[in-house]
Amino acid sequence: MEVLEEKEEEEQTEGEELKALEISDNLQDVEMKVPMEQVCIPSDVPDFDWSSIDTSQLPSSYKTNSPKEKKLLHIADHFLQQYTHLCPDRKLLFLHPVNECGVEKFVSTTIRPTLLPYTELYHWDGCASFVSDYLTMEPLKSPITPPSSLYSPTTILKYQKGNCFDFSVLLCSMLIGAGYDAYCVHGYATHEMCSLNETLKLCPLLRKPQEVRRTVSGQGEAPHACSACSFPVSSRVELGGTQGPHQRDLLMEKPKRDPLYGLRVHAWVLVLSGKREVPETFFINPFTGNSHSTMDEHFLGIESVWNHRNYWVNMQDCWNGCKDLVFDLGDAIRWEIMLSRSNKPLQLLSDAEEEKELSDRDTDDMVNHGFLPLEFFFLGLSTRESIFLTPLLPTAEFETRCSQGRKVVLYKKAKLEKWAPYLNGNGLVKRLTVYADLDCTEIVEVREWFRNREDMLDMREVNKQTQLTTEYFSPGHLLGLKAHTYTSLEPETEHTMEFYNEARVDGLQKRVENDNEITEYFVGRDDFLHVRHMEFGKRGKKIHLASTRTDINSRPIVQIKECFHRNLEKPADEDVAERIFLITEETIHLTYHLKDKYITASKKDFFKAADEDRKGNEIVMTPEMCITYQLICFQAGSSEKDKKLLHLYKALQQLTEEEKQLKQQVRQSEAEVLNILKIRENEETAVKLTASIYNTERNEKRRQQYEAMENTMEDELLGQEEQDLDYLAPFLIQIGHRKKMTKGQALRVRDDCLTDLKHRLVDKANIIQARFEKAVEELQEKDQWFQKNHNQLSAEEEDDFLTCCSEIAFRIHILALRLNREKQTAPQKYLALEEKLHKDPRLAEYLGHA
């Protein structure tokens, strides 16, 4: 029996080894076949022939390599040979692809840190959003190998197309220019991320804040690996039996099995923590512009990273994707650096320290050993050959963003559409359509975002099932409107209006209306009113108000109810909490605030006198006209005041007057609602867009003012040039400003003018020389003091001394440069003035033959 069990175990292990060999053979076959196959490109993305681009206008640095760049390529080849020898199972590194001119360039030289003059691009999210919107995605020719070419950001911006590597280089250039510690990443990702397939993902605009935070934290689900390691083959999804609609939708939502899982090459951007107050290291997918945690399961491994200064190779195991990777680029065990700098981690080095470190090294020795900082190769490049993105991105193109000003992104049960500002006449810039099914046939909700509207409309939500519309406004609306919810703009229908209460005198925050009620909510009022509720009755005759919208036949007021907050300056039994005016019943109910340690509140009910009980316009007060429920304290005379008819009479008289004022306020509220509905209807009928006063291209009035101001300034400059001081005036005054001079006088004026210039040049040189000698003497005194006291100085005092000496040495250097420049330019200035005097019309007649 033991022999049989051993044979079964041997057969089982042999079977597992055979399966593993079959899997590895299949992966190798796929790897060999895929590069030869045609990659499926979506039909809506037209093919672009990159060989037809115009390279004649590109700088000469694009078409040739300088000696330093050639040396850099030689170092890269040597590094690649060592890497291939030590890691034969790893894929080839992405080191020096060809550019648009067919010239090999080291990948780090393609990154050009650039800060564009748009405030939106000063932050990483603005840069990422711009790159994802402005460029059109092109898939890699082979999904499992890096591209053979890498074009410059200038060309990519010009043609607005590129693959993931082009996206990453452009985004990394902008982020580094904005001050971030950003790097391009060559690695592996899932099929959905590589192909920009968002149909299985929830739209970011639909995520709740908790879901967004959970996504950023990046809790993974399954292990992944890169090509440097062995990686698990994804299991097949077996479908069997009858599936219900809900189960079928769940199966459709799951991604299909990818035969190239873990092999698909992708490029993205890594942003390390530290600079720009970034608290945590994260990834940016350049295709979408979204940030991802380094624990995100869609990133399956990293081969290498690089920026504009250096290149690092990942030496860590990626069997668990990027979850276990440590992004300390100064760790030589985890990251193999190509151009050695120092033992100090790169992210801890400032630009000043890097320049100082570069100046202190022996460059020739580093070249011989292959250790050379990348800055050395940029020292000889002129600024004209650098890539500047600003001229290629004027304001109009920056605002247009997407190709032809429009972009569509499909998500799970949602469609997101984007437009450039001012492209749509109604100011629409974004629309999100939410569907009930995965096929996107039944619309549930539509959200629209607007910009630059005169009515300050910012967003509109429309529920297609209930036909409920909610509009949100930015501060600055004509009537202080903040939000408006309605089903129809017709009056006396359901409306909910929210206001910016700070912009209103009455402190109105919200108003809710339907066919027979209006409820108003207030904030921060001096009378402590916070709710006013109004009920209306039916009209005697039906009149259509859509056209007239007047209060000729207003709804009769049935009841007005007001609620007040507690006023601590009054006793609780004298502070009204609620008062109800029953208009039709001629009754007024008052309820006071609840006193401490009491379970019931005081109340008063006033009944108005009938017309036959009135004497003229005066009210005849009787005890039956007021019913009081008073909480009596055990104190003498506590309720005597309420028992007097005079006090009750005055209270009823005041309430009657306030009732009249409330009726007027109710009518004003109705009129305001009608006015808002009329204004909103007119604003939607004729939408007006605004333009900033700084946008002279769209703001015609501002452009005319700017042109008029420029013309005025030009006229003032011309007049000022005419009134400039005459350089010969101090010398002509000595001879009496004669219009006709003699030859002797002309020669005297010439000699005096040249002598004065000579004295001023000598005096200036003497001043610079004196300052130079003073600085040298100060440095010598500092050095002598240090020689005497260096044994007694602390480390902080030594740092102060070195800093002071550095400043003095810098000042001496500047003064020496200025002195040499004065010595070189003085003869030229003298000759220029002499020539100017000979050409002066007042002296030319006498000096022509002198």
From TrEMBL:
Main location: cytoplasm
CEP76/DRC7 peptidase-like domain: residues covered: 265-338
Compositionally biased region (Acidic residues): 1-15
Database matches in Pfam families: CEPT76_peptidase, DRC7_C, MORN_DRC7
Region (Disordered): 1-22
PANTHER family associated with the record: DYNEIN REGULATORY COMPLEX SUBUNIT 7 (PTHR35249)
Listed name of the protein: Dynein regulatory complex subunit 7
Source organism (scientific name): Buteo japonicus
